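Listing 4. Sequential folding, example run.
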Amino acid sequence: MAFLELSAHKQRFLAQNLVDLSKRLAEFGHGLVVLSGDPSQCLHSVINSGNYSHVGYSEHNGFYERQDAEALERDFPSLTFVKENTFSLFDEQSLPFSIENMPDVFSPFRRKVEKYCSPLEVCDAPVSLPSVFMPEGYASATVADLGLDTDVLNESGDTLLSTVVLPNLGAEHFVGGESAALTHLSHYLFEWRAASTYKETRNALDSWQDSTKFSPWLAHGALSVREVVRQVTHYEQTVEKNESTYWIYFELLWREFFYWLQKKYDARYFSFSGIQGKTPNTSHNEEVFESWCNGQTGYPIVDACMNQLAQTGYMSNRGRQLVASCFVHELRQDWRYGAAWFEHQLIDFDVGSNWGNWLYLAGVGSDPRGHRQFNLQKQTGIYDRDGRFCSKWRTR
């Protein structure tokens, strides 16, 4: 099966993020330039188009992202590169271990960072920007700049710079952009007060308020993980502090763990034998792979989750564990194809978390107990006892 890098759901969410960013920049008299193509080639073209002295970017621990950044710095030695860490709770200098010596297992990682590290401070939002800058020969973004069909931008087919309606209270869908992200963050914490019961409800398969749903905005940089922690801390100080509110931070530490683990292992993070160097007893079968992608495995809970993913671009964390376990154990498939399909489909795709969790389920990652296989019948009885989820997502 051949598939594009971005699904329609991912394209739509990305476009909505760009809509919101463009509008925020316009408030400061600035425009957004959107380039379509290979990132490295696009940046080379922009830099070569003018007489520039500085290039700024957010550092990322992804293997290929770091390769591109390092190549750019080698190709333009006369430029000053300004790099900022914006994706994580901690910076490398504050970690209580070197990247080479960081624990490969989550629990010792968590214990050490909780003891020795505090999340980085949130930067204040700018009140002004320097005079408008636009690279020579480039203009503010339009739909054509994205290389996307208008029907994937939003359900109404409006143009890129049209108004994006923020989700109303209880609306069960994702809208890209910082404005929507902050609206949802406020609703989740201070209107629904759902943080107080997060630990008990987080494994629900299909309920909007039962888990935080922060991940799509975090993955796209539309929401800062440090802002999430700041707001959760404010919630604990003004509303309630309990095990559930801590568990939100606990789950963000899992995200942090995978963010740094991918830097430790570079290309091995994507290898068949994983970070443990173990060769799984699985293989790739195109027909079996397609049946899994299409929600036709014969396992009702798995097929329902895969249909949900196809129709929404999202799947619960519990659902992801179940379909990955089925893919590796029941279907005996090469885990990398499952990880690649998630990368293609998920609107909240994060390279560290996605590939790290697949490594974990395949028994070649950070799970100290080896293979983690879920009993699908038992899990269905726990999380879909009345059959409502499977009935809703039975077919596409």
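-- end of first protein; second protein begins --
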Amino acid sequence: MKVRDFMITKVFTVKPSNTIKELLQVLTSNRIGGVPVVDDKDHLVGMVSDGDVLRYLSPKPPWPIGIAGLVYIIEEGDFEDVLRKKLDTQVKEIMTKRNLLFASPDDDFEVTLRLLSRHHYKKLPVINGAGRVIGVLSRGDLINNISKKIISY
């Protein structure tokens, strides 16, 4: 079996210049947890997930928390203002740019399954020979397809 037999071809992507707010609209309206980040020619330049967004948006203490167990408090209004400002940040500031893993549509399914499990990735972009993102493999979709194509034989 090849990656092309399992990949999702309806791929949602964002550009590095999109804001986190725009990214969140893509993620929530399509009920997905991450997307490839592509340039104007649909070449992969990064990956971004809901986890990246949460890590970026979570409040950071203004000082190191020491032995005394100091707790920082942000007033509700202040936190919402900070959050609104952070939502205007461009995706390129929080996306994963290095060591990007991807699959080819002609890769063996087993190799891709090992990649996803070894690196604990939730999604893996599928890139064609021209370097364009043409699909995505997600863990959930792999499990569903394994159930349909293999168990139902």
